[in-house]
Amino acid sequence: MARRSAEMLVRLLKSRPVVEFEDLRSTLGGASDSTVFRYLKRVAYRSSYNCNGRYYTLHDPGRYDRWGLYSVGDIHFSVDGTLKGTVVRLVHESEAGQTQRELQELLRVRVQMFLLAALRDGVIGREKIGQPYVYLHTDPEVRTTQIRLRRQQIDEGAREEVPVGDDVTIRVLLVLLRYPGCQAGDVVRHLQGRSPPVNRVQVDRVFAQYGLGEKGGPRIY
């Protein structure tokens, strides 16, 4: 067997979008868990923030979308490496803070326990603005700006049930053409942060209008 090296793991990770721990172990000639982790420390990698961290991928900055996320099917990775770190970053970077639902639609996993942990650690704050809690930056100046913009969004009806115009319909359908099989939440995620905003209610109405199922395909009766 070739002498073990971290480069062996790098080559493996470059050869596939995702690998499992057993793949890493096999590449190192059936090494023990501790040996695998010792070599992994020398490799730029990320483990999945869902699926119990079961999957591994090469940490390539060019892979991530504008939210710092990268997915292979239903396996999700973050530039931050951990879900808690990702939640905190997204809250800090958001112009108007983030609600639990918005984060779940973006990350496609439950985030409540991570939000509560971040609150306990004092790295994010929250305030009830309208109906849901909005999670905010702890810096007073940034927090004030986030609250102002969130209230402005609410006042403008940006997140209320507004009519679905042709422009919104076209944008939703273009996402479905580019990403066949997307669920409504995935469509919201792809359009989040763009102007004018498109919310879940509007996407649901486009799905209903065109007889699309849960995954963006025609309903089968």
**H/E element string?**
HEHHEEEEHEHHEEHHHH
Low-confidence stretches: none
- C-alpha termini separation: 57 Å
Helix content: 40-55%
Q: What topology, given as strand order, has the largest sheet?
A: 1-3-2
Can you count the helices?
Answer: 10
Q: What is the number of beta strands?
A: 8
Main pleated sheet = 3 strands, antiparallel
Radius of gyration over all CA atoms, rounded: 20 Å
Oligomer: single chain
How many separate structural domains?
3
**Class by SSE composition:** alpha+beta
Given the C-alpha coordinates, what overall shape results? globular
The average pLDDT is: 89
Proportion of residues in β-strands: 5-15%
What does this molecule look like?
- The N and C termini lie far apart (about 55 Å).
- The protein has about 220 residues and is α+β, with helices and mostly antiparallel strands.
- It is globular.
- Helices cover about 45% and strands about 10% of the residues.
- The chain contains 10 helices and 8 strands.
- The chain folds into 3 domains: about 5-80; about 85-155, Winged helix-like DNA-binding domain superfamily/Winged helix DNA-binding domain (Arc Repressor Mutant, subunit A), CATH 1.10.10.10; about 165-210.
